[in-house]
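Please check this:
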Amino acid sequence: MEIFGVPLNLLLSQVMLGLINGSFYAMLSLGLCIIFGMLDIVNFAHGAMYMMGAFFTWMLGHYLGIGYWPSLILAPLLVGVIAIVIERVLVRHLYDLHHIYGLLLTFGLVLVIVGIFRGFYSVSGKPYPIPEALTGVTNIGFMYMPTYRLWVLGASIVVCFGTWLLIERTRLGATLRAAIERPDLVATFGINVPRMITLTFAFGSALAALSGVLAAPIYPVNPLMGESIIVVVFAVVVIGGLGSIIGSIIGGFVLGTLEGLTKVYYPEASHISIFIVMMIVLLVTRSGIAGK
């Protein structure tokens, strides 16, 4: 069976591969959306947090012999601690200023962080092995998919929608949203608003680091890996709607799938398809698909 001249099996295979890429787009755009939507900071250093998550995973294994599964927790925690220091020392002074100051600060942080890792490890990729439990392939009916990539897809779905439930459907999430909108009022209930803001910044950065941990066995770990994906993630956030968590999640998966399908029908346009969609969305609505 063919659809527009392309065999159905090939089409479905590209959809699955697109969903894998979309899982990284969704997780990264989710963390970026949380930081922008909650703190009103354009965090250009988000890609550097993703890179550090992957690098810390490699370093934990290479220097300390710590495997993949503990690194799923340890690497995001390490990046989260670094994010806490960054927020308390630098970012918190910019909340009342124009967005451009946050953008310039975080862009400077990217240069510093990437420069440090390039100085120690150059730009050559560091290979990271797939954990033994996730090696091999799995028959999903229409293709054989590497088991590890299926794990990445499933884990990202759980993390993304678990985060959405936490922020949109729990008392903690409601308190956080209230602390951002009316910090003076929330503080009267004895809630430490600055601490909540710091932990929110750390949580969004830890999500980027978790994406890096998941990416380490797939892509070569190198200091520039965050730069190649962060521009696409910004486009996903704009398309989904600035500040819209569910828009960022759905947008990441849908646009990853679109990118995969474009590789079938018009490969030359696969790298710009997301930006074409972004231009169309912005022409129709300035707030994105699910923005307010």
User: Anything to note?
Assistant: The mean pLDDT is 89.
